[in-house]
Amino acid sequence: MPHSNPEAFNWSGVADPVAQYYSQTPVATDAAHEPGEPPLDSEALWPRGVAEWFALSLTLLPALLLLPNSQTYRLPLRVGAYGISLAAFGLWWFGGQRRQGGKHPAEVWLMWVTVVLAASLAHPLTSSLTAGLGQLFLYVAIFCPVFWARGYVTTRRQLVRIILLLLVCNGVNSVVGVLQVYNPDRWMPQLSALYSTNRDMLSAASYVGPNGRLIIRPPGLFDSPGAVCGAGTIAALFGLILTLEAMAWWKRLVALAMAVAGISAIYLSHVRISLIVVVGMMVMYVGMLILQRQTARVSAFSTLAAGMLVGGLTLATVLGGQSVADRFLTLFSEDPRTLYYSSRGISVEYAFTTLISDYPLGAGLARWGMMRYYFGDPAKLDSTELFAEVQPNAWILDGGMFLLFFYGAALVGTAIYDLRLVQSLASRDDRLWSAAVVAANFGTLVLVFSFVPFGTAAGMQFWFLEGALHGAMAHRPRTR
Question: Which backbone phi and psi does 132 adopt, to 5 degrees?
Fold first, then answer.
């Protein structure tokens, strides 16, 4: 990727790790752009094509909820990106791109997921037919990008553009999240009705800041407190990676600023698992660099990452008060196993000790989550509301042991495929860009045991990036 020796931007006189990285890295014969294409530094970020507009919609549509009186249109705005995903699948299916890129190894398992969910429609405890169909189409909308993205992302440059676009979208989202704590009167949107009408939920979504000021966990470009965390993890990772690219110094500085905003937004949200996820993503990226023997990049990235973690905590503590630092210091002051078990481990244990035996074939569709909230039948008294705080619980409730097995197999197969893909690519730059995507998706896999990512837009982004990576690298040279 790097192929020049850009000017350093450290004005303190201290050795700049980025400048050292460029000075120690030889000129790449395989640049970040294909022959005949302009360099990455001149790439315009205005989206073009189905895949790039879809990537933009993941942030743009929820951001419309910040507009005045937008809560009236909350449901269509929330499901808009899912509808676009299904529409893109239809265009891919009928538009002749089905044979491009070859099949992804997860596709066969996801087809079985669809079969299990379709069978669950007939479960006597499915909340309602409308809610059950909604749950089925939600699953399909989330994972179908792994099918259609490979038809619209067929080159490495297209993959790089998606990474750049996701950095900008999530970086702006993170900056807004920081500003919501700095100046809530101007930047804090109207919250979801679930919080504005429920004092207990609002209390759980806030904390005391400097001078006793009540701080609501920043939602960013969404309307749910703390929702900016997902954007913060992507901004932090991709921001650091793009800081090491051969671009103008001010563009690298913007990328670094977005990375700092991302990690600061996580700190200000008090969501400890998001910090663990972003650190895990960075460790995963460094591990793949080590396997590729990219020692100069390992050094530069690790130095920047350490500085970002400390600098982001400092900024967040100034804005959010000592409670921010105290919140995250518990990760070191308490036994990690005890801390996890008390927060989410109990739910995971409950899934494999109780739910799997109570509902081996599932509890019926739409027994939990927003589909039940919007479309469930409250008059069906034997189909009571259930809760799923972590992904295994959700899979068991929706499809029992079969859904748990097939979706788990799809994710395990994807992880193995990704690691083999990175090592098999002949081009150094192919391996580096692929490693960036794999590291980002690794964070979503970690969330399986602390959240329900594959019931939200986070899972849809996972499968979208996976499909885009598969399509972009399908015809790239491989090592022997």
Answer: -65, -45
